[in-house]
């Protein structure tokens, strides 16, 4: 599969950014929708720089953007969703044979309730949170091929073309990630290909997510959510949502959560912890969570939420990359240098049982 992304150039818009409504009666907190064809098919260096600056401004102000005209065909995304749904429909005993086993590999199937995402790094605190209010989702984690830590693939007879589809989709997402990181470099005043040699080993994680229907009474417990409040670990996360929704982003000024509903054809992209550390917090790694969308009423006192699917592509620097304060991001580093592997493995080790 070619990794060259071709975006369909949109007709000129009256305004460069289309934005979602802000949280009522709070300081402006807008998630910009950015036409990425203006970067991929820029008619001039100035147009490319302008789009790069818009992306960086979104990551500075909010930590999240919507990327439109990004070059990944709708049919490619729909096929990945279809194969994901086929996988999660397999019998539990078939999926359990592929169970996630080690934070160094971060590969395999994670059953409902096994993960509890949180900002805490205290294993005892996370264990207590998991026992009281586990995340109501199941996932499948896929990394690059050829590592000592092998991917856990279902048999081809159980899930036809699942492996091929997900490897192709991961390659497509990696290509887009490289282009967005080039935009980040330009927007920070660095050479456009500054990150190329630091993200070229494809140390990413493709996560398929399935949020099953759940009774609303189970979501009323304190701290309960489909996925608890957290930031992501790497450089960027590319999030593909279905039409159900449920993603919420925290306004850092008010600490309120704002819905980030699906916009057809767009990808939600957020900056992660390592990009925030790299940029000395010039770019923002924002807390977010997944809550239940409106439930279907099944009795006078009870309802049930709809099933939700999403696909997240967690982009990471090379595992041996040293993350330290970038040029143009301040003279006083806020963080000690850390390698990608040290940071991510440390976070994963306390997140799962």
From TrEMBL:
User: What InterPro entries does its record include?
Assistant: DIOX_N (IPR026992), IPNS-like_FE2OG_OXY (IPR044861), IPNS-like_sf (IPR027443), Iron_ascorbate_oxido_reductase (IPR050231), Oxoglu/Fe-dep_dioxygenase_dom (IPR005123)
Keyword list, A-Z: Iron, Metal-binding, Oxidoreductase
Q: Which residues form the Fe2OG dioxygenase domain?
A: 202-317
Q: Which Gene3D superfamilies does the protein's record reference?
A: B-lactam Antibiotic, Isopenicillin N Synthase, Chain
Mind telling me which SUPFAM superfamilies this protein's record contains?
Answer: Clavaminate synthase-like (SSF51197)
Recorded superkingdom? Eukaryota
Q: Name one GO molecular function term.
A: oxidoreductase activity
Family designation: Belongs to the iron/ascorbate-dependent oxidoreductase family.
Q: Which PANTHER family match?
A: 2-OXOGLUTARATE (2OG) AND FE(II)-DEPENDENT OXYGENASE SUPERFAMILY PROTEIN-RELATED
What is the protein's name according to its record? Clavaminate synthase-like protein
């Amino acid at each position: 599969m070619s990794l060259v992304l071709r975006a369909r150039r949109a007709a000129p818009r009256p305004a460069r950014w289309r934005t979602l409504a802000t949280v009522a009666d709070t300081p402006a907190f807008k998630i910009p929708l950015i036409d990425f064809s203006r970067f991929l098919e820029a008619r001039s260096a100035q147009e490319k720089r302008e789009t790069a600056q818009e992306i960086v401004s979104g990551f500075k102000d909010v930590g999240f953007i919507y990327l439109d005209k990004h070059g990944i065909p709708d049919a490619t995304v729909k096929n990945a969703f279809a194969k994901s749904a086929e996988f999660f429909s397999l019998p539990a005993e078939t999926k359990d044979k592929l169970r996630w086993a080690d934070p160094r590999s971060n590969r395999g199937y994670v059953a409902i309730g096994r993960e509890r995402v949180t900002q805490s790094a205290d294993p005892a605190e996370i264990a207590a949170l998991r026992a009281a209010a586990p995340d109501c989702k199941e996932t499948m984690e896929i990394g690059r091929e050829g590592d000592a830590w092998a991917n856990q693939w279902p048999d081809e007879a159980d899930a036809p073309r699942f492996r091929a589809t997900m490897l192709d989709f991961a390659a497509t997402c990696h290509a887009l990630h490289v282009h967005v990181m080039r935009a980040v470099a330009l927007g920070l005043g660095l050479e456009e290909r500054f990150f190329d040699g630091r993200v070229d080993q494809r140390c990413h994680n493709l996560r398929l997510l399935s949020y099953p229907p759940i009774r609303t009474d189970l979501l009323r417990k304190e701290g309960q959510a489909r996925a608890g409040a957290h930031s992501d670990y790497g450089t960027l996360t590319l999030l593909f949502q279905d039409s159900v929704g449920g993603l919420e982003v925290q306004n850092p000024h008010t600490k309120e959560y704002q819905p980030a509903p699906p916009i057809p054809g767009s990808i939600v992209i957020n900056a992660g912890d390592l990009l925030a550390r790299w940029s000395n917090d010039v770019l923002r790694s924002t807390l977010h969570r997944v809550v239940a969308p409106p439930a279907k009423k099944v009795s006078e006192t009870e309802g049930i939420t709809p099933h939700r699917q999403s696909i997240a592509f967690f982009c990471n620097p090379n595992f041996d990359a040293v993350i330290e304060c970038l040029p143009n991001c301040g003279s006083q580093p806020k963080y000690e240098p850390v390698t990608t592997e040290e940071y991510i493995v440390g976070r994963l080790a306390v997140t799962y049982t």
